[in-house]
Amino acid sequence: MTDLTHESHPQITARLKRAHGHLAKVIAMLEDHAPCSDVAQQLFAVEKAITNAKRVLIHDHIDHCLTSEDGSAIEDFKTITKYL
Fold it and tell me: What total number of domains does the chain contain?
């Protein structure tokens, strides 16, 4: 199996752990009947953390994984960009 780990993966993992913490906070806030504006602010933080992690992953993939050696680079590019 090919090693699919890249330099950005620890950074992505950190971003997702941050999002996980924000999401846990959102759940606790809802259970504690926190004001909707506070919940919305935390949901925004979750969304931004996930969006940033996705962006780093996709950019890393484009920079390091797309090659024309096997002729599938265009199809791979089309596949990954649907997640933008």
Answer: 1
